[in-house]
Amino acid sequence: MKKTVLKVLGKYIKNSGMRLLIVFVCALIGTLAEIAAPYLAGRAIDNIAGIGNVNFNAVARIIMILMFLYVVSSIMSYLVGRLSYNIAHKIVGKMRQDAYSKLMELPLNTYDTSSSGDIVSRFVNDATLVADGIVEAVTQLFGSLITIIGTLIVMIILSPIVTLCVLLVTSITFVVASIITKRSNKYFRLQQQETGNLGSVVEELVGVVHTVKAYSYEEVAQNRFEKINGRLCDVGQKAVFSSSLPNPTTRFVNSLAYILIGVIGGTIAGLTAGKISSFIIYSNQFAKPFNQITAIITQILAAYAAAGRVIALICSEPEIPEASDAVTLQNASGEVEFKNVNFSYNKNKPLIENYSLKVKKGQRVAIVGPTGAGKTTLVNLIMRFYDVNSGEILVDGIDIRKITRKSLRQNIAMVLQETWLKDGTVRDNIAYANQQATDEQVVEAAKRAFTHGFIKRLPKGYDTVIGGRGDSLSVGQRQLLTIARAMLSNSPILILDEATSNVDTMTEQRITAAINNLMEGTTSFIIAHRLSTIQDADLIVVMNKGHIVEQGTHTELIAEKGFYYNLYNSQFNTNTN
């Protein structure tokens, strides 16, 4: 995984190569100016031999040069910081874009096994940490490398003996940093993992706050939050503590280096006062990069851990690629056929086995069974949210694996039990399935779904803005809008997954009439718990425990007195003998 993270990050950074080159040039100029300044300062001190014996002209020239060098260093430092932030956010922006694009390509089982809060955390928290880490790496590491090399060369020129002493003392910082880095890295990975878990819990509880309050779950929810938050605080403290140890350690080592420079430089090496002064500054410059690196190690390690989580999302396996010869399905008639289909979510637990069914254009197929029987699985296979393990599903005689997903789904309208509305106007939500629809078509679809009346009573009618999830509307109104959306798509295949389960009886009757009109000429798959709504279906497929146990018309299944017969009687409490 480590190699993968570095490899992928390298590709993103490579795209900003020219801008990075400019940053490095600015950093090089600024750092060289900083390195030259202490030498000149030492020269100025040596030109002050004593009171009355001062070379004022030489000192004045040196001061002017120093002022110039410090101005150049400040300007270069500003440019490095400014450009680094620009580069970092462009890189992370591209990473976010690629990650979001990957979300649209991931198979549904990814969402079945991952919490939405954790995914959101990767886009927000983790990506921000990556940007901060890139800024630190660009602004600090390259300049630090130049500083280390440059000051080392100048110190050797001034005094190899004193330089050796400084190197021996400073080498302790390498040992300290190496030990602590290994320990800190583990805690930062755990910290990012717990941050994702915390985001998941918060999103979950906020999204169902009504249910939390209704069942007096507040205390349990609070305990659950505090448990995860406690783990996050624990690993966070350990990560920060372990990564903060090098800074005071290296500062102590630097103090020892200053003492050695003064003693050895003045006694053994015979350095002048100016050179000793320069050496002390250079020693500080030489140690400063190590102090900076250890000081920002917290951020860099956190950024690396965060990058691993974002890149893991980017590198996730997408849906099975479309066939190279995939065709675009146009003007489908609506014929659907299951041919020897086998499918299971878990290879060790067979679900649909050797199932065959041919549905002609305009037929209505009802799928019934107890909760969790696997009814939605059948329509998920038609939509190609999942691919069959073996066998074929054909639309108009074409294997859906040889049809582009986009064109396949454009020929299928779907109304789910779980309503979903986007943040926008009522018109935008109805037209979601057909972006080119005219206002007249939107209104007509709304009328057919019996939504026009309540829409006109809204403050701005069709221009009324409804927030995300449509919380300002009742459950029934939200369901009506999704039905209007399906009507506007005018697709030859229709899937209704408990589409009327959230509306009152009177509204259900109106919607049922509208849906009957909608289903004229379309091939319809109706998932229903209330068996009274599907008695007129051309075919009823009965499922139990993930398997298809019966199929036939209502009359035929009642006559068989099998599973459907018992299911029907359990709902209506009648004796059909």
Features:
single chain, alpha/beta, Rossmann fold, ABC transporter transmembrane region fold, 63% helix, six-stranded mixed beta sheet, 12 strands
Nutshell version of this structure?
The protein has 577 residues and is an alpha/beta fold.
Task: Please provide a written account of the structure.
- Among the domains are: 225 residues, ABC transporter type 1, transmembrane domain (ABC transporter transmembrane region fold, Up-down Bundle); 73 residues, Rossmann fold (3-Layer(aba) Sandwich).
- The protein is elongated.
- The strands form three sheets. Strands 6-9-10-3-11-12 form a six-stranded mixed beta sheet, sandwiched between helices. Strands 2-1-4-5 form a four-stranded antiparallel beta sheet, with no helix packed on it.
- The protein has 577 residues and is of the alpha/beta class.
- Helix 18 links the parallel strand 9 and strand 10.
The CATH C-level class name of the domain at 90-314 = Mainly Alpha
* Broad shape: elongated
Radius of gyration: 35 Å
- Estimated helix fraction: 55-70%
Report how far apart the termini are: 66 Å
In the CATH classification, which architecture of the domain at 90-314 applies?
Answer: Up-down Bundle
- Beta-strand percentage? 5-15%
CATH superfamily of the domain at 90-314: ABC transporter type 1, transmembrane domain
- Structural class based on helices, strands and sheet pairing: alpha/beta
Describe the strand arrangement of the main beta sheet, using strand numbers.
6-9-10-3-11-12
The total count of strands amounts to 12
Low-confidence stretches: none
Q: Helical segment tally? A: 20
Instruction: Give the assembly state of these chains.
Output: single chain
Give the biggest beta sheet: 6 strands, mixed
The CATH topology annotation of the domain at 90-314 reads as: ABC transporter transmembrane region fold
Mean pLDDT across every amino acid position: 80
